[in-house]
Amino acid sequence: MKTYLVTGGAGFIGSNFVLYLLRTHDDIRIINVDKLTYAGNLENLSSIEHDERHIFSQTDICDKPAIEALFAQYKPDYVVNFAAESHVDRSIATPEIFAHTNVMGTVTMLNAAKAAWIEPDGSFGDHKYLQVSTDEVYGSLSIDEPDSFFRETTPINPHSPYSASKAASDMFVKAYGDTYGMPINITRCSNNYGPFQFPEKLIPLMINNALQHEHLPIYGDGKNIRDWLYVEDHCKAIDMVLSNGTIGEVYNVGGHNERPNNFIVKTIIAEVSKAVNDPAINQTLITYVTDRKGHDRRYGIAPDKIKRDLGWYPETKFEDGIIKTIDWYLAHEEWMKHVTSGAYLKYYDTMYRNR
Length: 355
Ligand SMILES: NC(=O)c1ccc[n+]([C@@H]2O[C@H](COP(=O)([O-])OP(=O)(O)OC[C@H]3O[C@@H](n4cnc5c(N)ncnc54)[C@H](O)[C@@H]3O)[C@@H](O)[C@H]2O)c1
What we know:
- The structure is a single chain.
- This protein is α/β, with parallel strands linked by helices.
- The protein has a domain at 2-190 and 229-254 and 294-316: Rossmann fold (3-Layer(aba) Sandwich).
- It contains 12 helices and 13 strands.
- The strands form 4 sheets. The protein has a 7-stranded parallel sheet with strand order 3-2-1-4-5-6-11, sandwiched between helices. It has a two-stranded parallel ribbon with strand order 7-10. Strands 8-13 form a two-stranded parallel sheet.
- α1 links the parallel β1 and β2 (28-34).
- α4 packs parallel to α5.
- The termini are far apart.
- The structure holds nicotinamide-adenine-dinucleotide (NAD).
- Residues 7-8, 10-14, 34-37, 39-40, 60-62, 82-86, 101, 105, 132, 134, 166, 189, 191-192, 198 line the site of nicotinamide-adenine-dinucleotide.
C-alpha cells in the first residue's frame, strides 16, 4: 500500500486530485494536509467523508513540528505539494503572504521529507516529492507569435509576486534534488478549470456573477490568452509523473486550448443564459476594468515532453469541458453561496465593485 501526503487537498485542484486518486487506485492511503484558508473547503471532500483511505489534517505547511509529526505518524511514500496561495490579484496586494506560504511552506515540506526519507547512506529509497507548479514561472508570451510556446527549457522569468513565489519554490525543490539527491519532480501546468474552483478565478467568477446579473469584470482589452486545462486531465498528469516521471525532471502540462479572456466570458454568457433560459444574462453585463498590474499577455504550453515520455495528453476538449464545468456550478449553487460568503465578498468589493 502506498501512502500519499497531499497538501492543499481541500482546494480546487487538490480536492479534485484526492477524488481522482481514490477513484482510480484501490490500495492507497491519502493524508490530506490543508490549513483551510478561504480557498480550502471541506465540502469539496464530502463525497469521501466515510472513505477510510482518506485522512484529513487541518495543518499549516509552514508549521514545522506539526508537519514533522505527520511524517513520523504516517510515513508517506509520496508528497504532492499543492498547498499555496494561488490568486495573482491577492499576491499584488500582499506579496509577503505568498512568500511565506509558497516559499517557506515548500521549504518546510522539503526539509520534513528529507529528514524522514534519507537513509544512513544518503539514499532515499522509493520515495518521491512532487511540486505542483505553474507555467506562470516562465513569464509571458506574445499574442503576435502564436507558434511560440513555453517548454521545460524556457528560462524562468516570473512577473507577478505569485509567479515569483512559485518560481522560488521550484528552485528550492530543484536544489533539494541537486544537493541532497532527493527524488523530486516539478510539474508546471497551465490554467485549470472544472469543479470546486473558488469563484475569484475567471471561469467560476463569471458563472456566479452572470447568474446574479452582476457585472462581468474583464481586465484591460480582454485579449489576454490563457491555455485552459480541464482539472481532471491535470490530475491524471500528476499521477503519471508521480509513478513514471524520471527523477529530477520538470514536466509541463498544457491543455492545447488557448483562448482569449473575451472568448471565455462570451462563451459563459451564451451557455449560462441558454442553460437557465434567462435573456437578462447577456453581453451588456460585461464591464472592462483597469488592467491588472504587470498582466501577462499570453500563456501557452507545448506539452510535448510529457506526451512523448509518459504518454499523457489532454483528453478533454475545451468545448466539452466548459459545458461540464458550467453544468457543475449550476448544480452546486449551494456550494457557491457557501464559499462566496464572508471573506470572498469583502475581497470582491475591494477588487471590483468600487472601480
Ligand atoms: N488553479 C490553476 O489554474 C493553477 C495553475 C497552475 C498551478 N497551480 C498550482 O496548483 C496548486 C493548487 O492550486 P489551486 O488552484 O487548487 O489553489 P486553491 O487556492 O484553490 O487551493 C489552495 C489550497 O491550499 C491550502 N493552503 C493554503 N495555504 C496553506 C498552508 N499554509 N498550509 C496548508 N494548506 C494551505 C488552502 O486552504 C487551499 O485548500 C497551487 O500550488 C497553484 O500554484 C494552479
